[in-house]
Design brief:
This protein has 56 residues and is mainly alpha-helical. The protein is built from 4 helices and no strands.
């Protein structure tokens, strides 16, 4: 039982720390890590394989 409680506490702390910007900053959101969200990749013409599946 102690291990379960400790695991839940650690999990909640980890979620809170990962979401600090989302929870406490007005207009905050998680960063976009997809290829199509990276301007440098778009400039080089590199795109996501998922886009090929949708547009072919």
């Amino acid at each position: 039982m102690k291990i379960l409680v400790l695991t839940l506490i650690l999990l909640l702390v980890a979620i809170a720390l990962l979401g600090i910007k989302v929870f406490f900053v007005k207009g905050g959101r998680f960063p976009n890590t997809h290829i199509h969200g990276n301007p440098e990749m778009r400039k080089r013409g590199i795109h996501c394989a998922r886009d090929d599946e949708f547009f072919n």
